[in-house]
């Protein structure tokens, strides 16, 4: 009789529980580009690593189970995963996107693929009326981030899924911030889930990875063909790093979230801070909805200073916290979205969202929280 395994146990052991041939507990890195055939029409199941590699397959299968999906496909980056999703559409198609999302997603849709005849509209997806009002005869999909980047706006996945299903549209959810440990969009009605595995899944700022997870075999087959044909596949070594990261995902996220709540409350108490954007604060607008559809709040938050002259002071004086782009690692990072992650978002959208010269974003790590708060206190002052 096979035992029912928890998320944590699957994450630690992987779907295979190690290498079945040698007994290696750590799944091997199959650093091979090509594989020998046993004879004519007699493949081992692996032919060429762009098509499939055992290490990548283990990472994909493990993440698929954790995300409650039928299959996951591993890409060389999160942007590569989004790009593959765009290839599901054709010239003349229209896609609706959250207006508050990663700047690289905006760049892909509004710049790179605009030349291919795919049109997009960015709306506040926290109000489903905005989605309904934006649907056109050629609309094919809705793409959302929740919580969003960097304003932490929460969109109700099930409500959006009800709309997309009734209209025959695809619902794509970027689940990078909460990961399958805290949120499972497929169970809430999403068709595809995207991850930047570079972030919390990898967890150590030492790899680039992206994933698409889904349940529809027809869509997955199209994505597999796109994946192999365009070639932005996850390498064996980065696949192994993903497996290593998954082993501690739940421990890292729980500790980072615990730190985030304390850091967010500290920032709220500092007279130099105007507002804190974190879904783990009970007075935050998206708090109740996030609790309804997720089991955690994550470890990313943003905050607005009252005086923009504080920004360079903070960025130049933090010592424990690192001034760097990206998020989701064991180290705490601080980012200035207006010049870094969201520099290419149009001014009109940035102004509407509040992504301005006063806003900073924190990805909280697993350090001792008192050190983080002391570092912020020293940099911000009173």
Strand content: 15-25%
Question: What is the CATH level 1 assignment of the largest domain?
Answer: Alpha Beta
CATH topology of the largest domain: Aspartate Aminotransferase, domain 2
Q: What is the count of structural domains?
A: 2
Terminal Cα separation, in Å? 61 Å
Low-confidence stretches: none
Query: So how many helices?
Result: 14
Question: Can you give the helix content as a percent range?
Answer: 25-40%
Strand order in space, largest sheet: 1-7-6-5-4-2-3
Number of strands: 12
Going by helix content, strand content and strand pairing, the class is alpha/beta
CATH architecture of the largest domain: 3-Layer(aba) Sandwich
Shape: globular
CATH superfamily annotation of the largest domain: Type I PLP-dependent aspartate aminotransferase-like (Major domain)
Could you tell me the radius of gyration in angstroms?
21 Å
Which helices and strands, and how do they pair?
Layout: H1 7-13, H2 54-66, E1 71-75, H3 78-86, E2 94-98, H4 103-112, E3 119-123, H5 128-134, E4 139-145, H6 157-167, E5 170-174, H7 179-182, E6 192-196, E7 210-214, H8 217-230, H9 236-247, H10 249-269, E8 273-277, H11 287-293, E9 300-305, H12 310-317, E10 322-323, E11 333-335, H13 347-353, E12 359-363, H14 369-380
Parallel strand pairs: 2-3, 2-4, 4-5, 5-6, 10-11
Antiparallel strand pairs: 1-7, 6-7, 8-9, 9-12, 11-12
Helix pairs in contact: 1-9, 2-9, 3-4, 10-14, 12-14
